[in-house]
Amino acid sequence: MTQDTNELDLAAVDTYLGAHLPGYRGPLEATKFAVGQSNPTYELRTPERRYVLRRKPPGALLKSAHAVDREYRVQSALAGSNVPVPRMLLLCEDDSVIGSAFYVMERLEGRIFLEPTMKGESNETRRAVLHEMNRVLAELHMVDIDAVGLSDYGPTGNYYERQISRWTKQYRASETGTIADMDRLIGALTASVPEEDGQRTLVHGDYRIDNLMFETDGARCEGVLDWELSTIGHPYADLAAVIMQWQMPPGKEGRGLAGIDRAALGLPSDAEFIAEYCARRGLPGIDNFGFYLAFNFFRMAAILQGVYKRALDGNASDPTRAQAFGAYVPVFAQHGLVALETRGD
């Protein structure tokens, strides 16, 4: 039994899977994925099969964060739908097994593009991948939440009001110093929440290209991953999350498209991506898109602050990288303020 990982009791996992997962046979090896700052994720290998295990991180956690049981539930509900997800195999909510709750799912085969520039791919492939990304997003927001048993997956009421309240509390709980722009952004968002328009859909909460897996030699999406922030809410939050990511600088850290000649790479403009999404859903357009974009910058800033605080507390999945995230919090807050001022139509 090989343990190429940290903070995972491999012997305990092997014993538990042997008793609870039909068809499981060890011996077991594991490797921790380098990506993922929130819920530590591991590839599990036996002589016959490969699996993926996601767990809550060890240590003290913010209330309602790292809800792996919710990830398991939503992906189970989407099995067989037009939204591709890995097959869920087992959920363990007994913290005594490895120190925190975890679930096991199938290991998908495919590729993940860490950046939307998709370096090395043809323009044709880039276009096809982003069309597919757009299609899956629209399908996600057209899921019949009553039919798949998710109508109670999130509270009723104004999604943005409750999300701003929730992430403000999370941010305050992990605050390590005063960031004036973050305080201003929280106040501005609270004061400019749009009226409800009747849309209540499943939302992913962190929809971006590196949370999608595509087939190895094509553009078909094999699975939407990382559902930790999913809930029932308003669909424009997911759409704006894509656009927010594209506002970031290109490269390993920003993973965005700022300054990139998109046309030269076969990539759509923000407006083209939004228009394609609206066409798929039969929408006339989106007013006040700047609010939805600013909301995403705010939420990401709050998330990064939480990651940074966990690094200081010694609970981060990747402590070195998590420490660096603290510097990005005021940057995202500044971007949020600009979005409210300049992208309001």
Topology:
Blueprint: E1 2-4, H1 10-20, E2 29-32, E3 41-45, E4 50-55, H2 68-77, E5 88-92, E6 102-106, H3 123-141, H4 159-174, H5 180-191, E7 201-203, E8 212-214, E9 221-224, E10 231-233, H6 236-246, H7 262-265, H8 270-281, H9 289-313, H10 319-325, H11 328-342
Parallel strand pairs: 1-2
Antiparallel strand pairs: 2-3, 3-4, 4-6, 5-6, 7-10, 8-9
Helix pairs in contact: 3-8, 4-9, 5-9, 5-11, 6-9, 9-10, 9-11
Pfam family, one: APH
GO molecular function, one term: kinase activity
Domain Aminoglycoside phosphotransferase: 30-253
Q: What is the share of helical residues? A: 40-55%
CATH fold assignment of the largest domain: Aminoglycoside 3'-phosphotransferase, Chain: A, domain 2
CATH top level assignment of the largest domain? Alpha Beta
Helix segment tally: 11
Helix-strand sequence: EHEEEHEEHHHEEEEHHHHHH
* Residue runs with pLDDT of under 50 for 5 or more positions: none
Pfam family, one: APH
Keywords: Kinase, Transferase
GO molecular function, one term: kinase activity
InterPro entries: ACAD10-like (IPR052898), ACAD10_11_N (IPR041726), Aminoglycoside_PTrfase (IPR002575), Kinase-like_dom_sf (IPR011009)
Fold and architecture overview:
This protein folds into 2 domains: 2-106, Phosphorylase Kinase, domain 1 (2-Layer Sandwich); 123-342, Alpha-Beta Complex (Aminoglycoside 3'-phosphotransferase, Chain: A, domain 2), CATH 3.90.1200. Strand 8 and strand 9 form a beta hairpin. It has 11 helices and 10 strands. The mean pLDDT is 92. The strands form 3 sheets. It has a 6-stranded mixed beta sheet with strand order 1-2-3-4-6-5, with helices on one face. Strands 7-10 form a two-stranded antiparallel ribbon. Strands 8-9 form a two-stranded antiparallel ribbon. It is α+β, with helices and mostly antiparallel strands and 345 residues long.
